[in-house]
């Protein structure tokens, strides 16, 4: 039974071909294409309003040089939200529960922010490794600590997204199994458990959106330090 709980995180395959590429490409098919008309339908209007509000909030702390990342960060945000939300549907696969995929997003984008900082303002970028006013005997130790903290940033990004989504999916499956088992024996307890399951599902919808936002927000903060 315990092994089957983790089967939902295994990448599906058909005739030996992994279908994770299909799961990653599918969200882009669901997005409506803006028409050439002046007046759009309600769905496209809401989508445009959401993306504009998100870009305004995200780019506000950044200078003009960081605004070049607006399209990339907005696309990543919408992509992660869509994948996370689709993963809550029954009999679906959530690619963002795979640490390899999340690290594939986190490492190149984090590395790009570091390279930009080293290229544009190397003195300021290296200055982040040593807090101002640090005692001279502690300088080597502080530099090592700050370097380690810099290097684990992409790991923290990937693990945070993976752990939150994995824990939520496991809780939903555990409580759903409990409802199925308790229903013949104790219907009242099963109904109460089903209510908890419904509330947990609503919480997971919020977590799916919040974790995508946090992922992109932390990337923008890393970018802010280097532009």
Automatic annotation (TrEMBL):
Transmembrane stretches, start-end: 12-31, 69-89, 101-118, 138-159, 171-199, 205-223
PROSITE patterns the record matches: ATPASE_A
Localization in the cell: Mitochondrion inner membrane
GO terms for cellular component: mitochondrial inner membrane; proton-transporting ATP synthase complex
Keyword Transmembrane helix: yes
Membrane topology recorded in Swiss-Prot or TrEMBL: Multi-pass membrane protein
Keywords, sorted A to Z: ATP synthesis, CF(0), Hydrogen ion transport, Ion transport, Membrane, Mitochondrion, Mitochondrion inner membrane, Transmembrane, Transmembrane helix, Transport
GO molecular function, one term: proton-transporting ATP synthase activity, rotational mechanism
Superkingdom classification of source: Eukaryota
Catalytic activity, as annotated: H(+)(in) = H(+)(out)
Subunit structure and binding partners: Component of the ATP synthase complex composed at least of ATP5F1A/subunit alpha, ATP5F1B/subunit beta, ATP5MC1/subunit c (homooctomer), MT-ATP6/subunit a, MT-ATP8/subunit 8, ATP5ME/subunit e, ATP5MF/subunit f, ATP5MG/subunit g, ATP5MK/subunit k, ATP5MJ/subunit j, ATP5F1C/subunit gamma, ATP5F1D/subunit delta, ATP5F1E/subunit epsilon, ATP5PF/subunit F6, ATP5PB/subunit b, ATP5PD/subunit d, ATP5PO/subunit OSCP.
Family: Belongs to the ATPase A chain family.
Protein name: ATP synthase subunit a
Gene: ATP6
């Amino acid at each position: 039974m315990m092994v089957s709980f983790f089967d939902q995180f295994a990448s599906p395959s058909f005739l030996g071909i992994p279908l994770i590429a299909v799961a990653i490409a599918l969200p882009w098919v669901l997005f409506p294409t803006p028409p050439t008309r002046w007046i759009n339908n309600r769905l496209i209007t809401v989508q445009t309003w959401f993306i504009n509000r998100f870009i305004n909030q995200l780019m506000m702390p950044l200078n003009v040089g960081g605004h070049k990342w607006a399209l990339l960060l907005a696309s990543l945000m919408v992509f992660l939200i869509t994948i996370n939300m689709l993963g809550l549907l029954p009999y679906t696969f959530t690619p963002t529960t795979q640490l390899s995929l999340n690290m594939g997003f986190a490492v190149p984008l984090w590395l790009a922010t570091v390279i930009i900082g080293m290229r544009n303002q190397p003195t300021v970028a290296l200055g982040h490794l040593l807090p101002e006013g640090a005692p001279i005997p502690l300088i080597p130790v502080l530099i090592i600590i700050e370097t380690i903290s810099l290097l684990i940033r992409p790991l923290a990004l990937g693990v945070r997204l993976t752990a939150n989504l994995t824990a939520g999916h496991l809780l939903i499956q555990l409580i759903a199994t409990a409802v199925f088992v308790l229903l013949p024996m104790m219907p009242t307890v099963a109904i109460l458990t089903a209510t908890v399951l419904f509330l947990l599902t609503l919480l997971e919808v919020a977590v799916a959106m919040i974790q995508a936002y946090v992922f992109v927000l932390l990337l923008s903060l890393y970018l802010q330090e280097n532009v």
